[in-house]
Amino acid sequence: MTTEQLTPVNEFCSYHRIEYTVISTFHDAGLLELNTIDQVSYIPVYELPRLERMIRLHTELGINTEGVEAITHLLERIDMMQQEMQVLRNRLRSYE
Amino acid sequence: MAFVDYYKILGVEKTASEKDIKNAYRKLARKYHPDLNPNDTEANKKFQEINEANEVLTDAEKRKKYDQYGENWQHADAYEQARQQQGRSYSGYQGGGQQGGYNFEQFGEDGGDFSEFFQSMFGGAAGGGRRQQARYRGQDFNAQLQLTLQEAAQTHKQTLTVNGKNIRITIPAGVENGQTIKIARHGSPGVNGGPAGDLYITFMVADDVRFKRRGNDLLATVSLDLYTAILGGEITADTLTGQVKVKVKPETQNGTQVKLKGKGMPVYKKDGDFGDMYLTYNIQIPTNLTNEQIELFKQLANRK
């Protein structure tokens, strides 16, 4: 993975004005993948959309990290169910 | 343009403290926040209203102006000009739109756009108090693209204009209705060196008058005259790639379904693979029979 696809955790935390512990809590909960190169932690680019959503839930809505963890799992289930619903809707159209 | 009652939107009294407003905002935001209501345009709209109400009522200057003029907001600027001309001191709001230059377009989603009422009264984001959603990575864009079934059946290129830029994309044959593809890094640019967001395109495949689609298979109903159904023969049927000849077996029953192998939709991203087409026969009973035809049918009926 090239460094272009990685964002240093400290840079991310400084932009969002959050503590490193917020990131490490999400990481410990298995919600976030981190890469460590030369003792520096990086966030893979593909993790950013999900991580930024978790940060927004935490900072804008005042939801604690456990709550964010639960919501993230639920949102992933909703996403899967919406995809399933779309497949079923398409099938239903063939009977109309 | 109608007056917007921000107190009513947040469900608080006009005398509400800053803390009450914050609590009311958070309570409603937890219900309608776009991150908690993916693909829900109604919730997104509601969140925009809540966001706007919060923006005004948590900003002392904006709230003061809003409270002062209320439903007479249309005359707010005229009143102020008159007061200034009369030499009265006024230390509150400093004229809508003076700071200008704020690009609303970058907030196309997630509670970004303010109402006309807000923009008219506060001149865009006058006062610089706009609360921007936390994003390091650029915002994703979502777009919908309408396709006919015929278009969805062929790999083809289309040019889209996103944020003033033309993007030429290849649409693979076999896309489903409601399917979304991601065009990486074609969303809004990131902040402080953050990566750009992505562009998500959702395909809306219109119904076709001739065919129904079920996954990769196509379904069609064809009329079959009684005589061909009884004696067998050959008919022509429409497919996506033109007409084909289909042999009809003698004594074919109404509602019989026949499969035309490989005449369905192309399988998404599997070159050379196709679904099947299913034809359902709808046997037409002859009408306006002549006396001779009726006599012949009677003879047949008597020989059962």
Shape of chain B: elongated
- Output the CATH homologous superfamily of the largest domain in chain B: DnaJ domain
Major interchain interface with per-chain residue totals: A-B, 32 and 31 residues
Mean pLDDT of chain B: 84
Q: How do the helices and strands follow one another from N- to C-terminus of chain B?
A: HHHHHHEHEEEEEEHEEEEH
CATH domain fold name of the largest domain in chain B: Helix Hairpins
Beta-strand fraction estimate of chain B: 15-25%
Give the C-alpha Rg of chain B: 32 Å
Ends distance of chain B: 78 Å
Structure, explained:
- Chain A has helices spanning 9-16, 20-28, 48-60, 65-93, and strands spanning 6-8, 35-37, 40-44.
- Chain A has 96 residues and is mainly alpha-helical.
- Chain A has a single domain (3-93), classed as Multidrug-efflux Transporter Regulator, Chain: A, Domain 2 (Orthogonal Bundle).
- Chain A has a 3-stranded antiparallel beta sheet with strand order 1-3-2.
- In chain A, helix 3 crosses helix 4.
- Chain B is of the alpha+beta class.
- Chain B folds into 3 domains: 6-122, Orthogonal Bundle (Helix Hairpins), CATH 1.10.287.110; 141-205, Urease metallochaperone UreE, N-terminal domain (HSP40/DNAj peptide-binding domain), CATH 2.60.260; 212-302, HSP40/DNAj peptide-binding domain.
- Chain B contains 9 helices and 11 strands.
- In chain B, the strands form 4 sheets. In chain B, strands 6-7-11-10 form a 4-stranded mixed beta sheet.
- The longest helix of chain B is centred in the first third of the chain and has 17 residues, at 41-57.
- The chains are: A mainly alpha (96), B alpha+beta (304).
- The interface between A and B is medium-sized, with 32 and 31 residues.
Keywords:
heterodimer, A: 96 residues, mainly alpha, Multidrug-efflux Transporter Regulator, Chain: A, Domain 2, three-stranded antiparallel β-sheet, 4 helices, 3 strands, elongated, B: 304 residues, alpha+beta, Helix Hairpins, HSP40/DNAj peptide-binding domain, 3 domains, three-stranded mixed β-sheet, 11 strands, 23% strand
